[in-house]
Amino acid sequence: MLVLTSSLFNQIKSIQHGFFSKLGEANLAESTSLDHNATSNQAKISKDFNYNVKFLRQIHSNKVIAIETPTQICNHVEADALVTSLPQVSLAIRTADCVPILLCDPENSIIGASHAGWRGAFAGVIEKTIEQMTQLGAKHIYAVIGPCIRAQNYEVDQDFYQNAIKINSKSLKFFTGSHKKGHYQFDLPGYCSSMLKDLGVNANDLEVDTYSNSQLFFSYRRAYHNTKSGRAVKYGNQVSAIMIK
């Protein structure tokens, strides 16, 4: 099992974290053809962290759930970020190209995990996550951006471009021209990192691309490009998790 970690977070002895690859058993599936091992893999991720892991039913929203008790059940709750101040409770998110963001305030023992696809990012999931952590008492927040699709592989059309800059004009600088007329390359992790820094968060990016690293990571866009027209896209999800020890 390959798990990536951040040198920034590795210095914080009070937390455990990891960005799991698709190698081994720490992956989950979305499509029918891949999900036969999803339940057992979720249990193995929990075992790796030695405690129960909280997952959500992710819907590309800006909704954040605060875990207030160790027994709180949220697997069927529709949301895209988790926060807590409880020890020995792991917060986990699933991604296949979207940006996984793990957050912590080591001084006040508060952590968060956010799933930031383009919809969630433009809807304010990052801001809402920071807001919820602040309400718990966080003051000095650090964040790490994990494996996700990078600009060179994230081509978007004119409608996407226009809608994005209409929602947030600051996003303009994260678009570059594409070789395809009327299209652009969008730097989603760059946009997320900028949002974090604007909120006063010390953000670090692992700079790992899911699309081009087919041996290590699932990628929805890669799966889509490799799927014949008319067929269902088959893809899986890698997991990112964080816990207060």
UniProtKB/TrEMBL annotation:
Keywords: Hydrolase, Metal-binding, Transferase, Zinc. It catalyses: inosine + phosphate = alpha-D-ribose 1-phosphate + hypoxanthine; adenosine + phosphate = alpha-D-ribose 1-phosphate + adenine; adenosine + H2O + H(+) = inosine + NH4(+); S-methyl-5'-thioadenosine + phosphate = 5-(methylsulfanyl)-alpha-D-ribose 1-phosphate + adenine. It comes from Midichloria mitochondrii (strain IricVA). InterPro entries: Cu_polyphenol_OxRdtase (IPR003730), Cu_polyphenol_OxRdtase_sf (IPR038371), Cytotoxic_necrot_fac-like_cat (IPR011324). It holds the Pfam family Cu-oxidase_4. Belongs to the purine nucleoside phosphorylase YfiH/LACC1 family. The keyword rRNA processing does not apply. GO terms for molecular function: copper ion binding; hydrolase activity; S-methyl-5-thioadenosine phosphorylase activity. The lineage of its organism: Bacteria, Pseudomonadati, Pseudomonadota, Alphaproteobacteria, Rickettsiales. It comes from the Bacteria. This is Purine nucleoside phosphorylase.
